[in-house]
Amino acid sequence: MGEKLLIIGGVAAGATAAARARRLSESVEITLLERGPYVSYANCGLPYFIGGDIKKREALLLQTPQGFLTRYRVDVRVNTEALELDLAGKRVRARGPQGEAWLNYDKLILAQGGQPIWPGMPGGDAEHVFKLWTVPDMDRIDGYIREQQPKTAVVVGGGFIGLEMAEALVQRGLHTAVVELAPTVMAVADAELGMRIGEEMADHGVNVVTGVGVQSIDPMAKTVLLSDGRALPAELVLFSVGVRPDLALAKAAGLAIGPAGGLQVDEHLKTSDNNVYAAGDMVEILHRVAGKAVRLPLAGPANRQGRLAASNALGHAQSYRGALGTSVVKVFAATAALTGLSYKAARAAGLDVGVALLHKEHHATYYPGAKMMMLQVVYERPSGRLLGAQAFGHAGVEKRVDVLATALAAGMTVHDLAELDLAYAPPFASANDPVNLIGFVAENDLSGYSPLIHPDQLVADLRGQNPPLVLDVRNPGECQIAMFPGAQMIPLDALRDRLGELPLDRRIAIYCKAGYRGHLALRILKESGFADVVNIAGGYLSLRHAMPGLGRI
Q1: Which of 156, 96, 112 is nearest to 132 (CA)?
Q2: 199 φ, ψ to 5°?
Q3: Is 168 among the domain residues?
Q4: Domain stop point among 268, 283, 313
Q5: pLDDT digit string, tens, across residues 247-257
Q6: Are residues 426 and 481 in the same domain?
Q7: Which of 66, 116, 207, 536 is least surrounded by Cβ atoms within 10 Å, i.e. has the fewest?
Q8: 235 and 289 assigned to the same domain
Q9: Any bridge partners for residue 284, and if so which?
Q10: Helix 516-527 vs helix 539-546: angle between axes, to the nearest 10 degrees?
Q11: Residue 44 appears among annotated catalytic residues
Q12: How far is 101 from 82, CA to CA, in rounded Å?
């Protein structure tokens, strides 16, 4: 017999590791233990089955134990839980349908993933309260909706699964609310992206409640009591408030836990034991921009880690360079995506940060069907090194974020964005793609040719001892719809004739609708002797997200 490889966990990282190991070696003896009844299933597709987008349940079951045995000669044991890890003896005690047994290994890969955080609260164990993590979880939710036909739902948590499930429940005909403790949904993102997601959800009938928590669930009244005293009707409750790495086995065996709270691995995905490797949601990895250990419970990195863990366990040395946290989520008709560091995360890391915001059609404006897209890049001053990007819109979003994720992985700067040679034809893009344009905006900021101020910084400066004058250069008709409080209005085309109305000795912060006219106005003022002028990044469309209560336009 060949070397024995034991894998614990059979979904993303574990299943990938098993298949990779067999491709590397026909002689290795591979055993895979999975605690649940299914192996290698598409857990990211679970909300889309509940919502009806995916019609066939079997489409989510990517492989079976028999399929693994036939194709890969992998001994897959489902409904089998690893109970104890003996590092010195290189063995694992497991309990399955046939009872308990010790399994020996030469190399071990831990891919146990994580578990949804399940907050203990009154009513949390009621039959109409659910989580969504596995196929059986999906089946329970789907069966409950079919049998009980609930009319109202509350989703607790506004992250990826919470957003996807809110849409799924709406598609199933439930009046749905999302409750998020943070000020906006998608708390990992900046406020503008979170608020845009929330507005899209509200436009499709979701009651988005932010800044409050959940205190209890009343199973009799079928309500959820919030921390501010409100009660929301909830014949179905879904909790999706985060993921905790599954570390009980690793901790009991004495494997090292890292500073981010995940299982510690090196660049070869090896744990503190030379014969044990790990991958997926349970490990902490290097964030390629922040340069520190983080937990990123995402399917893409988990699959790639599983592949590399198998390679290294079998002696084919490959280094894992970390991840960026690149993510995308469908929000009804819209798309939201992000990669790298957010503006708030970059500032919290102590970096000198610049941010460029762009509101631009996703393809040539004269070609039918152009959809407005919000694009943000965060960069380091003065180098221009890219730190992160976020985008929201109804077309072309994921394409731009994937380009920017590639640029981040390559260590590119905003100057490189300006020169990228991207595909152009009117149905797909503009001659200067939004990625190019946001590179131009960032370059202008860094050079001082057209300096930017982030809306959050403007709001903070307005509360200071020397607040800037806010100048609105939109047309009068636009200002009648919505306007920043206290702003002075001079339309762009009248600005040259009304320069005398503006102070030379005070900072002037300019805004238009989206930023371009603000840039033109800034250049007029600078060329006319106004030294301290800034353009508000993203114009009114971004400014209103820094000041909740400003009207939509």
Answers
A1: 156
A2: -65, -40
A3: yes
A4: 313
A5: 999 999 999 99
A6: no
A7: 66
A8: no
A9: 264
A10: 100
A11: yes
A12: 10
Same domain, 248 and 110: yes
Q: Is residue 121 part of a domain?
A: no
CA proximity to 263, closest of 278, 275, 244: 278
Return the percentage of the chain with pLDDT > 70, whole number.
100
Q: What is the 3-state secondary structure (H, E, C) of 161-172?
A: HHHHHHHHHHHC
> Which strands form 81-86's sheet, in the order they lie side by side?
81-86, 91-96, 99-104
Tokens at 483, concatenated = 């306007």
User: What integer is the mean pLDDT of 168-196?
Assistant: 97
- Please give the tally of structural domains in the chain: 4
Q: Which of 241, 274, 293 lies at the terminal end of a domain, its last residue?
A: 241
Taking every pair of Cα atoms in the chain, the longest distance, rounded to a whole number of angstroms, is 89
What element of type H or E holds 215? strand 214-218
Domain that holds residue 497: 452-546
133 vs 115: CA distance, rounded Å = 8
Cα–Cα distance between 160 and 314 in angstroms, integer?
35
110 with 9, same domain? yes
Measure the CA–CA gap between 100 and 425, rounded to whole angstroms. Answer: 63
Per-residue tokens: 540: 């009114």
The pair of three-digit structure tokens given for residue 240, joined into one six-digit string: 């999706």
> 93, 218, 243, 104: which is closest to 154 by C-alpha?
218
CATH of the domain at 440: 3.50.50.60
Rg (CA), the chain: 26
pLDDT in tens, 127-143: 999 999 999 999 999 99
Count of CB atoms within 10 A of residue 33's CB? Answer: 26
Read off the CATH number of the domain in which 520 is found.
3.40.250.10
Sign of CA dihedral 359, 361, 364, 365: negative
Query: Could you tell me if 102 and 134 lie in one domain?
Result: no
Catalytic residue among 3, 4, 24, 44: 44
Cα torsion 201, 204, 206, 208: sign? positive
Q: Is residue 552 part of a domain?
A: no
- Please check the confidence at residue 508 and state whether its pLDDT lies above 80: yes
**Do residues 455 and 542 lie in contact, with contact meaning Cβ atoms separated by under 8 Å?**
yes
Task: Confirm whether 179 is domain-assigned.
Answer: yes
The pLDDT confidence band at residue 517, using thresholds 50, 70 and 90, is very high
